[in-house]
Amino acid sequence: xxxxxxxxxxxxxxxxxxxxxxxxxxxxxxxxxxxxxxxxxxxxxxxxxxxxxxxxxxxxxxxxxxxxxxxxxxxxxxxxxxxxxxxxxxxxxxxxxxxxxxxxxxxxxxxxxxxxxxxxxxxxxxxxxxxxxxxxxxxxxxxxxxxxxxxxxxxxxxxxxxxxxxxxxxxxxxxxxxxxxxxxxxxxxxxxxxxxxxxxxxxxxxxxxxxxxxxxxxxxxxxxxxxxxxxxxxxxxxxxxxxxxxxxxxxxxxxxxxxxxxxxxxxxxxxxxxxxxxxxxxxxxxxxxxxxxxxxxxxxxxxxxxxxxxxxxxxxxxxxxxxxxxxxxxxxxxxxxxxxxxxxxxxxxxxxxxxxxxxxxxxxxxxxxxxxxxxxxxxxxxxxxxxxxxxxxxxxxxxxxxxxxxxxxxxxxxxxxxxxxxxxxxxxxxxxxxxx
Length: 436
Description:
GMP Synthetase, Chain A, domain 3, globular, alpha/beta, Rossmann fold, 2 domains, 20 strands, single chain
């Protein structure tokens, strides 16, 4: 495979929309039949909605299927005791991998893959990583494969290996992640570095006055998978002195997506593998492409644990127009996560909205921050807690509050706090805390 080609699988990634819809129709029909025949959850769910597999004749019929969410899975698990929430479509003995979601919005759910699923998942992740820039012969890192066996991290490592890259999966043990990348792996000359907790990593680079390109002379880019604001991207690229490439993934359904050089910040989705749509989060009515709404995904490929019309709790916009890179698949622009937002009067404010303002000032650039959510929503005032990088100066709180209010159109209050007052999760930084 030529390293210069833009797509890992050009035939699929540039196929016509008509052929893509035919493929989606074929796979949706198979998946509905599969889950109805093999999954106790889906049989009960579809019977309650009075939907039968015979009702689904093409992708146009997908709106006949009821939309499901994480709470539906948790309710089924609570009454059945099944760790797979009744969604498993193969015998447990057939599973070669069992993962869990991150639990960003509640108790994590459990999912499994059989061998065919694992093979397809790593192929899907190879497509994502090729678009990101990983190429045969590259040296990259992914310590999370060694430290955590859940989510998409192990598949990210194997997707890179499928391309022909060498992946260093050294677990940090008593070292921080950034020390592993910039000290233990000094001399490895990595071409691409997967970053995980960017606030910590950038802080370490600045504190030690490290120049990453002196440690890894052939470093071409850094990459990761998180909601990336303009402020975050700017700070990362200034610290690492290379471009930042963003990806996305979901532990629930092994969903890989990534930017190309033309689409950023929008991510390309694999529409032959997943059907993407947006709905109104209250009415669950389907929304037209281009309109902001909650992302709903349908897994069109998995045999063991597919979820159909599954609410992702992310607010996005979908664009199905062809991209300059040649891809005909949908591009999805992320607005934020419901779990990381508060309702202030008639506006929903996401953590990313706040981040772009907070991180624009030198005193609070890359500072830890949290939105404070009132128990009763909506709330009258946007409340934000943030740390400062140095000494707090008089008037900083009021300046930040004024800039937030001007930028977001709501009253705002800012409180400078010690880092110990900002909750940090084991996996992700906690961006919203509930007011006591």
